[in-house]
Amino acid sequence: MSKRLLYGVVLAVLAANLFLGARIYSFSAEAGQKDDEYANYRLFADVLEKVRQESVEGGKLSYQDLIHSALKGMLSSLDPHSEFMEASKFEEMKKDTQGEFGGVGIVINLNKDKQLTVVSPMEDSPAFRAGIMAGDRIVKIEGRSTEKFTTEDAVKRLRGQSGTEVTVTTFRPSTGETRDVKLKRSEIKVPTVKDLDNKQEFPMGENGIGYIHLTQFGEQTAGDLEKALKKLEGQGMRALIFDLRGNPGGLLDQAGQVAEKWLPRGTLVVTTEGRGATQKSEYRSSGHYKHPNIPMAVLVNGGSASAAEIVSGCLQDLQHITKAIVIGEQTFGKGSVQSVIPLTDGSALRLTTARYFTPSHKVIHEKGITPDILVTMTDEEERDNFLKKVPGGIESLDDKDRERIKNAIDPQLDRALDVLKGVLLYTKRTSDATSKMALK
After folding, report:
1. Which of 65, 200, 249, 328 is least enclosed, having the fewest CB within 10 Å?
2. Cβ-based neighbours of 177, under 8 Å, separated by 6 or more
3. Number of Cβ atoms within 10 Å of the Cβ of 351
4. DSSP H helical segments within 35-143, as ranges?
């Protein structure tokens, strides 16, 4: 090889090394800048001061206002379920999961026209006794218009110390009546375990088929479910309709304690998996409250999420033990775990820290639970059945709608009844045939 050619090769190699080295350095510098906490803290502080000093609105904003807004934006950018909760919202969340708070006893929401509307009054609450009904509009609270209120704004004003009073102005669309109602707040206990009539009486249905509806998973849910099951079993329950429709979820430990009621000790209920090996965990049945495995129909729909999907997915995976058949529509698909992390000023982070999986390691997140038997319902059927159950729901309507809702059918519930009746009939015939064979 000539010297000229050799020098040319050496120069080419050196040039390539210099070029690649420069690119690698550039990439490393860029990556380092992104992860340089002090440089990014300085950037955040600089922007904060610029807003305070130069924004038209800067003089009206405190450092806390700006920091809280930044935290809300940061958490909401992670996923739909992570959030920064100010102290007041954190307190409301704790009251909701504990199942008790001081208030007037109404479930409210904004309707499609952004009007504050009563979804349902809670039975034997101040609002229920005052005659407030589902469908009533809350147009004023303490004389102040609710026109631009969020649901959170209204809840904040309606809840308060037991024994104190609050005046609400209601409008009833069916009659055109507007009235002022003075309500005395009391301790409101929110039941999460209900019977078919939205009460806590749990009468036995036809053919020995019981019915239990879980509305969410609060701190008392597993204990209240235990009482309901014992009451139905005391009446000779032979099969169960376990309704998880519209259940948005709640506490993860309660989901485990609910599912394990039909599982032997040590059975896997749910697995959670986070970023590191230390964040992988399993919940296994304790076996402390094992109930007989009778035929069970688990009702789900698109409103069944999170903890409701853990329970329905577990019971479905372990059909050979639980005798559970899942009926209804595809569930929501929220398979992530939110950890609530309290902060020093009374606020808190709700942070997605893991995802959970069914016993067979099926993915729930963004997929949901697929029913064994698919039964759909129209929006009108869902609305009519909801109004049929809530206290004051039928009474809030005109005569024509009232008659229609009284006769409303629930296709999912009807299918569950038919399936369980068929299973019970088949079981009886098989048992009778076995007995005859034994006698021969």
Report:
1. 65
2. 171
3. 17
4. 37-54, 63-76, 87-98, 126-129
The mean pLDDT of 120-129, rounded to a whole number, is 77
Q: Which residues are known to be catalytic?
A: 306, 317, 334
Does 398 score more than 80 pLDDT?
no
| CA distance linking residue 109 with residue 120, whole number of Å | 10
Specify the amino acid at residue 362: K
HSE-CB for 228 with a 13 A CA cutoff: 27
Q: List phi, psi (to 5°) of 408.
A: -65, 140
Q: Any residues with CB less than 8 A from the CB of 72 and at least 6 apart, and which?
A: 83, 84
Amino acid type, 409: I
Would you tell me how many other CB atoms lie within 10 Å of the CB of residue 329?
A: 20
Q: What are phi and psi of 223, to 5 degrees?
A: -65, -40
6 — pLDDT class (breaks 50, 70, 90): very low
pLDDT at 437: 64
Please state, in angstroms and as integers, the Cα–Cα distance from residue 278 to each residue in 104, 253, 273, following that order: 44, 18, 9
